[in-house]
Write a sequence for this structure.
């Protein structure tokens, strides 16, 4: 069984003194251009600023590691390898390999590169556990997300990560990378996942399933009605640019109608981040998929399940019927499940079959969605135990109550 610990031990925050920095401590800006990742010495955890601050302080003599995964740590233009031990001297100065360097002169040779890897765990009926993150050295892997990947349908059942309480200071205006298809996950007879997501590929597959002409724009249109690469764990859910970039993996995405992705589901993501910030708390978050969306066949009227890949032998990468997000506060053990119906073409009278647990959203004060707007993604909320009666592969958590305020 693929289970996650919900103890907050993965992130570290430093700010040893209040007020102006003293002469015996270091203060650095971790968001400076091409800055290496700050790692607690000998561990596999990123160091974040204290809540409400954008700089990090260390006492003199404190030892950290500076990492540029799959890149080089450069000091005054000279390579020091991909990871180096650094000791705080004072101000912005660190001692490395017997020499002292200013923080501004310590940079990565390029943006750190994340990787995906299959682990030994199992999850769900056909689920394989995997993780996304950074190789620090031969024995340490810094995990940003844990994935439960359905090896038959070839789609993530869910993605899990820890949201930092400092999420409001996250990097912005960083270049948006392309989605990456890691090896070992997809088996599509040589077809590339990216080609299935582009509108031409979507039209070919979806229209073929529904008995439409190849170039029909009835469903896959030229505006916001098309299937986006819907992040499960969102780019904006992380603090540093390297972490944000690690979300651009196809195993962390599923087909989501853009009219929903950019509306109610975006609001769900924003509301979750705002909750973490307002309550100054780190959250455990699981975002997943459930079921397969369908549309009527053009000639027979029969509901046809939608996939991005389909041939005479099998279908893969389904368009999920539902997106869901478990938001869990491990401090008070309260949780909630936020659910979005992933079909903007449904009629109101069809919605009942997509309500899989009792809606408790009227009891939740921090949600700002327009829940009844079908085009933007009909949305509702459930308790974690009620939701797990249906979605049995969702994580088993000790829940004391609803995360309502």
């Amino acid at each position: 069984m693929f289970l996650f610990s919900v103890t907050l031990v993965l992130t570290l925050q430093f700010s040893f003194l209040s007020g102006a920095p003293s002469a015996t401590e270091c203060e650095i800006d971790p968001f400076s251009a091409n800055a290496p990742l700050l790692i607690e010495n000998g561990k596999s955890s990123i160091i974040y600023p204290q809540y409400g601050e954008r700089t990090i302080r260390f006492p003199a003599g404190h030892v950290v590691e500076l990492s540029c995964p799959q890149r080089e740590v450069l000091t005054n233009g000279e390579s020091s390898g991909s990871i180096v031990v650094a000791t705080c001297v004072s101000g912005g100065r660190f001692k490395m390999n017997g020499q002292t360097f200013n923080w501004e002169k310590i940079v990565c040779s390029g943006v750190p590169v994340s990787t995906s890897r299959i682990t030994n765990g199992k999850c769900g009926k056909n689920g394989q556990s995997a993780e996304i993150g950074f190789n620090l050295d031969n024995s340490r892997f810094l995990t940003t997300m844990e994935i439960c990947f359905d090896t038959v349908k070839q789609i993530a059942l869910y993605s899990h990560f820890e949201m930092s309480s400092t999420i409001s200071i996250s990097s912005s205006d960083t270049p948006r990378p392309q989605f990456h298809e890691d090896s070992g996950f997809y088996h599509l007879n040589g077809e590339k996942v990216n080609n299935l997501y582009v509108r031409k590929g979507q039209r070919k597959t979806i229209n073929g399933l529904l008995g439409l002409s190849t170039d029909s724009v009835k469903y896959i249109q030229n505006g916001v009605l098309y299937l986006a690469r819907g992040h499960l764990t969102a780019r904006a859910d992380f603090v540093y640019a390297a972490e944000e970039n690690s979300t651009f993996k196809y195993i962390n995405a599923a087909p989501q109608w853009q009219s929903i992705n950019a509306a109610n589901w975006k609001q769900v993501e924003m509301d979750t981040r705002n909750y973490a910030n307002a309550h100054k708390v780190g959250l455990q978050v699981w975002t997943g998929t459930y079921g397969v969306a369908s549309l009527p066949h053009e000639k027979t009227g029969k509901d046809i399940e939608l996939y991005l890949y389909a041939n005479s032998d099998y279908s893969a990468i389904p368009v999920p019927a539902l997106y869901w997000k478990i938001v869990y506060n491990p401090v008070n053990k309260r949780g909630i499940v936020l659910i979005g119906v992933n079909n903007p073409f449904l009629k109101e009278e069809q919605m009942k079959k997509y309500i899989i647990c009792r809606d408790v959203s009227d009891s939740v004060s921090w949600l700002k969605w327009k829940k009844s707007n079908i085009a933007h993604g009909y949305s509702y909320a459930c308790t974690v135990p009620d939701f797990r009666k249906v979605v049995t592969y969702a994580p088993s958590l000790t829940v004391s109550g609803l995360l309502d305020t």
Remarks:
- Residues 26-108 form one domain.
